[in-house]
């Protein structure tokens, strides 16, 4: 009898151990997810405090499905309204990918061609526009200015008046020679969509993109309409939070980025980009291909998307900034992971937030050092960093254009670098050749934070660009 009881006890114990082990296996992924969520919460709360951001909305999307969505801080400071995943933010230039998609829909429908000169549609255009094609506008290689000279956003303009204003601006370079970001070019694309389709571009998006995808809260900006869950935009003026500046109705509906969106809208958009619901796969791949310039070099920008990689992970992404808001979408397309972030403070750094969250979700997404095959360039980078910190830069090493920008910002950058303390290390993250120049991206290691440093050298070995930004 004793042996029978003992065997039965052992059998029960074995089953209990197996059951406990099974529970542990099941709970392990849950605990890992909870730990990741806690890390993201901690990171987001620290970033909001560090960057003085009132509120944020964040989503992580995998295989077209939301795996994490949450709001942080305040959507409206005056009314003490918390930000949620359902909060509506402004897109800024992240909206350019929707404009580009609308153009490609018209291309697939045979209504226009990427090779069409835009004078086919803008018949009263100046002669300087004769060589500008639709492709040039999509890829920011048309030579058009970034913005209108007077930047008068408080006046209403008709589409014809906007075209006239754009036509009065001289081209910065011949079409296809260089890459230079142009909001004016995308304003022209919106008007082009209207001319070709017969619909205002916002109505075209509503009928052809937002409604079919179930993007129920996506729409053109309207300050007159009642928009539930709409966030307020803010800016910092001498360290004090202020409301966004007012923009006229027509200047707040142009195709360079004037949309209301939530992270839920963006999740549906992201899911559609893995399918052919909107565009053929070949069209999408064109949008995610680096533009080729006249000299044969490429620049890492497609149609409304920046193109890059982190480690061996292909990345297409874009940010936005407008009227007190910042936005960012980072799509690790081979991994089918996307991070979307909206912020309501115009000086915030959404790329840092999106990339930081992505690296928490998947540590392989963190930028990694590569082999440094040009130590003499890195030595020069260190020298420039030291002189920038000390405030002793001089014009000899810079192009005239770069020096005009750098000298105006040198004092502010010097103060920020001094506050970080001594430089503890430098790592090369990327080395590319956009626009025929050489671009070097470094990680600068300080005691409590890292900084991404970009230095661009031209063919004459002059510095054509410097950029410091938090990692």
Key words describing this protein structure:
seven-stranded antiparallel sheet; single chain; 471 residues
Secondary structure elements and their pairing?
Blueprint: H1 2-50, E1 55-62, E2 65-76, E3 81-82, E4 89-90, H2 96-108, H3 134-139, H4 159-167, H5 183-197, H6 201-213, E5 219-220, E6 234-237, E7 240-243, E8 259-261, H7 263-272, H8 281-287, E9 291-292, E10 298-299, E11 306-310, E12 313-322, E13 325-332, E14 337-343, H9 350-361, H10 375-390, H11 400-420, E15 425-432, E16 438-445, E17 450-457, E18 463-470
Helix pairs in contact: 1-9, 2-5, 4-5
Describe this entry's structure for a reader.
There is one protein chain. The protein is an alpha+beta fold and 471 residues long. The protein contains eleven helices and 18 strands. It has helices at 2-50, 96-108, 134-139, 159-167, 183-197, 201-213, 263-272, 281-287, 350-361, 375-390, 400-420; strands at 55-62, 65-76, 81-82, 89-90, 219-220, 234-237, 240-243, 259-261, 291-292, 298-299, 306-310, 313-322, 325-332, 337-343, 425-432, 438-445, 450-457, 463-470. The strands form five sheets. The protein has a seven-stranded antiparallel β-sheet, sandwiched between helices. A hairpin with a 4-residue loop joins strand 13 and strand 14 (337-343). Helix 1 (2-50) runs antiparallel to helix 9 (350-361), helix 2 packs parallel to helix 5 and helix 4 crosses helix 5. The longest helix has 49 residues, at 2-50. It is globular. It starts with a helix and ends with a strand. 36% of the residues are buried. Residues 1-26 have low confidence and may be disordered.
């Amino acid at each position: 009898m004793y042996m029978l009881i003992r065997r039965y006890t052992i059998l029960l114990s074995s089953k209990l151990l197996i059951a406990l082990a099974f529970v542990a296996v099941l709970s392990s992924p849950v605990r890992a997810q909870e730990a990741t969520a806690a890390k993201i919460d901690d990171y987001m709360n620290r970033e909001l405090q560090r960057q003085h951001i009132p509120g944020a909305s964040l989503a992580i999307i995998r295989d077209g499905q939301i795996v994490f969505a949450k709001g942080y801080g305040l959507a409206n400071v005056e009314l003490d309204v918390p930000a949620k995943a359902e909060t509506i933010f402004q897109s800024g230039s992240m909206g350019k990918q929707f404009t580009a998609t609308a153009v490609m829909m018209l291309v697939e429908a045979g209504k226009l061609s990427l090779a069409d000169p835009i004078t086919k549609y803008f018949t009263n255009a100046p002669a300087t526009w004769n060589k500008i094609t639709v492709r040039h506008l999509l890829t920011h290689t048309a030579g058009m200015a970034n913005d209108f000279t007077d930047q008068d956003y408080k006046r209403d303009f008709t589409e014809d008046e906007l075209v006239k204003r754009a036509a009065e601006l001289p081209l910065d370079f011949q079409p296809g020679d260089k890459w230079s970001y142009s909001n004016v070019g995308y304003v022209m694309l919106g008007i082009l969509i209207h001319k070709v389709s017969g619909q205002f571009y916002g109505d075209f998006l509503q009928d052809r993109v937002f409604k079919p995808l179930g993007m129920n809260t996506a729409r053109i900006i309207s300050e007159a309409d009642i928009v539930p869950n709409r966030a307020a935009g803010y800016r910092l003026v001498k360290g004090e939070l202020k409301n966004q500046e007012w923009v006229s109705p027509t200047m707040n509906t142009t195709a360079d980025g004037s949309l209301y969106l939530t992270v839920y809208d963006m999740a549906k958009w992201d899911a559609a980009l893995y399918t052919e619901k909107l565009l053929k796969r070949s069209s999408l791949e064109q949008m995610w291909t680096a533009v080729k310039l006249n000299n044969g070099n490429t620049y890492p920008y497609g149609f409304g998307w920046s193109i890059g990689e982190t480690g061996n992970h292909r990345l297409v992404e874009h940010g936005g900034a407008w009227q007190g808001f910042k936005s960012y979408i980072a799509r690790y397309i081979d991994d089918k992971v996307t991070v979307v972030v909206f912020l309501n403070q115009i000086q915030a750094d959404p790329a840092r937030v999106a990339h930081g969250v992505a690296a928490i979700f998947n540590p392989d997404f963190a930028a990694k050092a590569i082999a440094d095959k040009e130590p003499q360039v890195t030595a020069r980078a260190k020298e420039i960093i030291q002189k920038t910190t000390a405030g002793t830069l001089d014009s000899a090493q810079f192009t005239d254009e770069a020096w005009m920008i750098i000298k105006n910002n040198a004092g502010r950058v010097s103060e920020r670098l001094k506050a970080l303390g001594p430089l503890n290390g430098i790592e090369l993250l990327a080395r590319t050749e956009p626009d025929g120049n050489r671009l070097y991206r470094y990680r600068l290691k300080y005691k409590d934070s890292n900084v991404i440093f970009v230095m661009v050298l031209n063919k004459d070995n002059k510095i054509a660009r410097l950029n410091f930004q938090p990692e």
